[in-house]
Amino acid sequence: MGKWRYGVVLDAGSSGTRAHVYRWLDNAVARKEADATSLKSLPQIVTKSDWTKKIHPGVSTFADKPEQVGQDHLAELLQHALDIVPKNAVDETPIFLLATAGMRLLNDVQQSLLLEQTCSYIRANSDFQLPDCDLHIQVIPGVTEGLYGWIATNYLMGSFDMPGKHDHGKGHHTYGFLDMGGASAQIAFAPNATEAEKHANDLKLLRLRNIDGSVQEHKVFVTSWLEFGVREARKRFVKALELAIGTDVMEYPDPCLPAGLRTTLNGKVLPPSSPGPSLVGTGRFDECLGISYTLLDKDAPCADEPCLLHGMHTPAIDFDVNHFIGISEYWHTTHEIFEMGHKDKAYDFNTYQSRVKEFCSQSWDAIEDGIEQHKWGKKVDWEAASEVCFKASWIINVLHDGIGIPRVGLENTTGSGHNGTKEVLSHAGEKGYLDAFQAVNKIDSTEVSWTLGKILLYASSQVPAPVAEEVLPVGFGSNVDGIPSDFQYPSVDLLPHPIETPSEHWHDTLFRGESPRRIPGIFLFVFIVVLAGFFLCGRNRRLRAYHKVNRLFRRPTHPTYPKRRGFLGGKLPFLSRNTPSYERVLEDGSHDFELGSADSDGSEIVEAGRASEDDSVSISQPKRTSSWGSTTPTLKFGLENGSSASIGLGISAGPVSNAMDRAGLVVRTESRDHLAPIALGPTTNGRRSRAGSPTRSHHKSPIMTPLADD
């Protein structure tokens, strides 16, 4: 194991999948290099801008063709990760694919098939560490995504390692987290002490481990709103227009589109004369705000007060100590258009809303001219420009009317040309982002992504706990003492009862030097060659080889002692000359039938011996015959006078040299017809109970199959 440890997280979102590669020092190395202060901090996670790669569309778009998700989607991301992680560290590098809201909208069968195909493809095409598919390849719930984001944000802000520098008052030093994607939105924050005590059962208990093995715990409230992401909210907005206007019209006036823009109901731009139902922009942003407000569902019944959106319970937010940082759409919608054309990058309600109105009131022709001139930057194309008015109205409604973020700048700004928070933002880093809300993309040059929270939790779990102490594992779950039933472990090796899953390919298990189950390759190769040759050499050659080996291990015995079996005699059925005997019991008779041996020249040997005292079925020991190496069965009949007789069912190669029963009596006949009256006796009226054996026309023992029980 080298100095550095690596981890790969694939963020499978609704619109695309993003691969993130992270690196941190091995704990033993980190302890040696750390000073007293650093020992009390979490592992230091490092990443670079070119270590992230995103491709479109998302994994969920392969729901109807899961077999293609590997080659058509994952291959590029997997190669990206393999290009970054050193070759000698790949097999020690864990990989995770965590799917979010896009996959949550699929049914269970579609999810399962996609996840299985994903895990199989990664295992077959890389040596990344993937010991358990259920843990490493999964659809995570919104609360888990939100908690990972909260971890990442506070880690980058430094509030975990230096709480004294982030004192917000009332003993509070962490930041709230807001995230919005295409399909869902999340919120995570640590309530103040009063709310935390009042809603203790609603909180998640998070446990992390510092480099020195010490533990830090945090109690966080997290919730998620599915279909509250910008794409799903837009779908609900269009449905609301259809319900309000009716479904029998061809054009729907849309106040959230710039005037003159015409699109399909799915948002694709159409030329003015295209047929079919369409949305026609009116550029009335105030109306857009009013209609999108209704999508917050603020009037939904609240079973557990207080609630924010859609009737979902949320502890009261104390904005004196809870300062929120928003990422994803909160950043893209507020900055990629409305700030790129301005020197200042601040967000405040009045400035932002003024700029949105200015942009959305333009005609679509004017906006297209601005796109060609890169007026808003090279990232802004016609698709982004056509969507931004609705997105902006939705962000404003969610932040201020939904979550309740104070409208900073509303009182002290007068127009779009004035930056109400320029001074505030310029000192944001020094102040610790103490505004109620601040949208960010990076903190200290590192992109804020919930995937960072996931890998930090994993790296923290790899820190060994102090030997002399009994400490609880790293992870998160319900806010109760001990380890709750819903506790989430970040790695397989922490599970109380690890699942036996293949952590490496079979050839690595057999040949890699550090594997305890390793088999030297040369011995395995020789064994396979010998085994293949053994089965290909044919039965006769196997028998000859068997006899030679058997004679080597056979010890001489006294002539009167019973013969000993050879080294392998009776243990390998494909080598032994004797075949097992079988018995069959008739349902309606008291006669005993036993398959024994017969002579080899077409005649039968009948043993007249003492009959068994009961009617139980017995199996006679097969008798060794001539060199044909087989034994043909006989039928043994119990007679009325207490004697018994046997009828051979086959013909062997030569006469039996000593066919004698226990009483020393021998009965030999030349045909089965002569034997039948004697064997069957008067009870059968001279009729034979079984047809005679067919005459052998060649010198090969017939193949006898066992008789099934009647």
Give a structural overview:
There is one protein chain. The chain is α/β, with parallel strands linked by helices. Among the domains are: 1-140, 2-Layer Sandwich (Nucleotidyltransferase, domain 5), CATH 3.30.420.40; 577-710, no CATH class. The protein is built from 21 helices and 21 strands. The longest helix has 22 residues, at 382-403. Residues 410-432, 498-507, 509-518, 565-572 and 574-710 have low confidence and may be disordered.
Strand order of the largest sheet: 14-13-6-7-9-8-17
Q: Indicate the percent of residues in helices.
A: 25-40%
Mind telling me which CATH architecture of the domain at 1-140 this is?
2-Layer Sandwich
Distance between the termini: 66 Å
CATH level 4 superfamily of the domain at 1-140: ATPase, nucleotide binding domain
Secondary structure tally: strands: 21
On the 0 to 100 scale, the average pLDDT is 76
Q: Report the CATH topology name of the domain at 1-140.
A: Nucleotidyltransferase, domain 5
The coarse silhouette is globular
* Backbone structural class: alpha/beta
GO cellular component, one term: membrane
Binding site for ATP: 182-186
Biased composition (Polar residues): 617-633
Active site: 145 (proton acceptor)
What is this structure, in a nutshell?
The chain is an alpha/beta fold and 710 residues long. The chain is built from 21 helices and 21 strands.
